[in-house]
Write a structure and sequence with these properties.
59 residues; alpha+beta; two-stranded parallel sheet; 37% helix; 19% strand
Length: 59
């Protein structure tokens, strides 16, 4: 088993935000689930062949 720890950098997040605003990069969303269906989102992630990010919403 391996683990990875990610540390946020305010400067990097700001630069990423600018790239998103300018349309230089974009985020592809595979599917969206309400937080109450996190289990279904996890199952979707485990199924493989996803095309983008899986998003959990708070509503």
């Amino acid at each position: 088993m391996s683990t990875t720890q990610v540390r946020s950098s305010g400067l990097q997040l700001s630069e990423a935000g600018l790239l998103l605003e300018k349309g230089i990069i974009n985020v592809v969303i595979d599917s969206t689930y309400p937080l109450a269906m996190a289990s279904a989102a996890h199952q979707r992630a485990s199924s493989g062949s996803i095309q983008g990010k899986i998003v959990l919403t708070n509503f």
